[in-house]
Amino acid sequence: MPFESKIFDYDLPEISINQNPYNDPNNSKLLDANTKKIIKFKNLSSIIKRPSLFIMNKSTVQNVRVVSRKSSGGLIEIFFLEILEDNIGKCLIKSSDKKILNKIYNLDIFDFEIIEICNDTFNIKTSLSIKEILRKYGKTPLPPYIDDHENKYKYYNNEFSDGGFSVASPTAGLHFSNQLINVLKNEGHHFVFINLDVNIDTFKPVTAEYLEEHKIHEENYNITQSDFNKIIQAKEDGMDIYCVGTTSLRTIETAYLTNKLEGRTDYFIYPDTKIHVPDYLITNFHAPKSSLLSIVACIYGEKWIDLYKFALDSKLKFLSFGDAVIFKVNE
Questions:
Q1: Residue-wise burial string across 36-57, b where 16 or more C-beta atoms lie within 10 A, e elsewhere
Q2: Which of 15, 46, 72, 276, by CA, is between 20 and 30 Å from 86?
């Protein structure tokens, strides 16, 4: 029986969207979905059994937003989604002019040509290497619902981020400062850092009538053999496994089901999907109509909407810079 997408809609007041990051992530809040208890992340160890293993997504948000002026004087914004070759990239283009194949743009900082058009994305060939463009001129791509300000940029990457090419942050990790990770390690807990490059389509709402008709975004991932072995060994030893973020969950489930430790994944977790690896999921509160709510429904059931209402009534903050919730998987 197909799942109607309207079940993932709910009313999210603007006041509940955290516009500003926590200066100290230790003070962000965590709702225990089972007990309805709310704690601060600095007290996380009080509700977890030791030793446990945490799976974190270490992918780095790159400075993929580039704003410049065209030779005509008008503004243009290029949002790089992926580097295909040194001088060829997949991107979004925001500009008032008509964007057609083989059109050449002369900008203040570099030139480029549109070499391929695919729906609303463009492959372009640039006069400078794309890595150089991003290094010199790129800005952090804050989510569309966050008011853009450069003071927020440094808070949009996880402190432990290392490598990868994400255009949106795996935000559940923002609650884990390196200090907190070290405290948890000293208490006997273990950490594995994997990589899934978060695509901008993570913000794309489900607009199809049925969930099964929604094409989920495809993303690059990789896990080292030794880290995968650690996870499987921890599972066999009966250790509690925590996925920090839906990206970590999708990655480890993809690897477990396919036995491929790197590649591209478009794995969609439906409300009736079986979760195999983690015992717990720590994740932020997701936007209405988000495909990620399907994961929440899979783990918590149809009463997720009551839990979200409880969180709203409790003044918890939502979305990227907001608070988080911890779920027991397969209860």
A1: eebebbbebeeebeeebbbbbb
A2: 72
Complete edge-to-edge strand list for the sheet that includes strand 104-106: 65-69, 75-85, 88-94, 121-126, 111-118, 104-106
Strand, coil or helix: 153: helix
Q: Measure CA of the first residue to CA of the last residue in the chain; give whole Å.
A: 23
- The residue written with tokens 């283009």 in the block is 93
* CATH code for the structural domain at 65-137: 2.40.10.240
**Look-up: residue for tokens 């993809």?**
254
d(CA 209, CA 219): 24
Q: Tell me what percent of the residues of the chain surpass a pLDDT of 90.
A: 90
Token digits of residue 126: 């640039």
What class has domain 5-61+147-328? Answer: alpha beta
- Amino acid 175: pLDDT: 98
Closest Cα to residue 168, out of 254, 105, 92, 229? 92
Assess whether pLDDT exceeds 80 at residue 48: yes
pTM: 0.95
CATH 3.40.1780.10 domain extents, the chain: 5-61+147-328
User: Minimal CA–CA distance to 280: which of 313, 325, 221, 319?
Assistant: 325
Tell which residue, 172, 137, 207, has the closest CA to residue 286: 172
pLDDT of 331: 52
- Report the 10 Å Cβ neighbour count for 228: 17
Q: What is the pLDDT of residues 155-190, one digit of tens each?
A: 999 999 999 999 999 999 999 999 999 999 999 999
Q: What is the pLDDT of residues 194-218, one digit of tens each?
A: 999 999 887 788 888 888 888 877 8
CB 276 within 8 A of CB 253: yes
Give me the helix-helix angle, 246-258 and 293-300, nearest 10°: 70
DSSP 232: H
Indicate where the chain has its CATH 2.40.10.240 domain(s): 65-137
